[in-house]
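Let's see one such:

===
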Amino acid sequence: MIAALVVILRAAESRPSQAKSVRATFTLTLLRMILILSGCLVALSMIPSMQSSWDVILQGSGVIAIVLGLAAQTSLGNLFAGFSILASH
């Protein structure tokens, strides 16, 4: 599924419009980061000693996400507002 999205985004990136190219590049980079992170998590889950510590990792990442979300609330609000403006055009 991700490979199909990458093909679609590369086709959209080849169009001459600069705004579409920026969006396509951003989305393609975001998909690559998600794919790499997912691969790392799958690789770590194969290690027997890591299987027992998933609860700690998930709890720690949840706390970090809450702290970062509260700290960057204004910036994230502006970011999502920018995305909604781009999507409406």
Q: What stands out?
A: The radius of gyration is 17 Å. The mean pLDDT is 77. The CA atoms of residues 37 and 63 lie 19 Å apart. The chain is about 90% helix and 0% strand.
